[in-house]
Amino acid sequence: MQIFFTADGRKYSYQEFLWGDLILGDKEVLQRMGIAAGQPFPGEPGAEKKSVKTKDPRGFACRLELWGLGGFPYLASISHPGPTWSEVEDWRPYAAGVIYRPYYEHDEYLGSADALAAAGLVPSDLFPGMPGMSATQQTIYSDGTTPKTQGQKNRDLVGAVGSMVIKKNQ
User: Fold this and answer.
1) What is the maximum alpha-carbon separation in the chain?
2) At residue 44, does pLDDT exceed 90?
3) pLDDT at site 6
């Protein structure tokens, strides 16, 4: 995810996909972009608690949600006419034997254990099924620890930048 800043220092993220746009930011940034201008935001009096449906300045359907991750209070998800996000296969080459597709809060990589390790994505001893790792799915926190080595004390790192979930292809 790429972070941008307005002229007055407010941070936001704007990502374009085939199916639509995702924008993370605070109320002022989103309203400057014409999203829910003059309307209450989620959790405010007169609005739903967690999400609000509106339109962007182009007239496209927009869902505004409470977010709170990465220092961004809101997520605006704008749907373009055409295929939905679940219908679009947006796999791209990453490294030899590895492809990936970006999402708004994580990237997904696909490849053999050898190819993923050679690409520098995962140390070769942390794959599911390896000694001391889970059998089919392994979580690796952003600090390099796992639930088996640190228990649940680092659970807040699951969504942090750099954390991973590795799934064994069945």
Assistant:
1) 56
2) yes
3) 87
Q: With contact defined as beta carbons under 8 Å apart, do 13 and 5 qualify? A: no
19 close to 87: Cβ distance less than 8 angstroms: yes
pLDDT tens for each residue of 117-151: 999 888 888 888 888 888 888 887 777 777 766 55
pTM for the full model? Answer: 0.51
Both tokens of 126, joined, read: 């942390």
Q: What is the 3-state secondary structure (H, E, C) of 95-114?
A: ECCEEEEECCCCEEEECCHH
H or E segment at 22? strand 20-25
- Helix H or strand E encompassing 149: helix 147-150
Three-state secondary structure call for residue 85: helix
Closest-CA residue to 18 (of 77, 90, 103): 90
E strand or H helix at 75: strand 74-79
- Residues 6 or more apart whose CB falls under 8 angstroms from that of 26 comprise 10, 12, 72, 73, 74
141/81 Cα distance (integer angstroms): 37
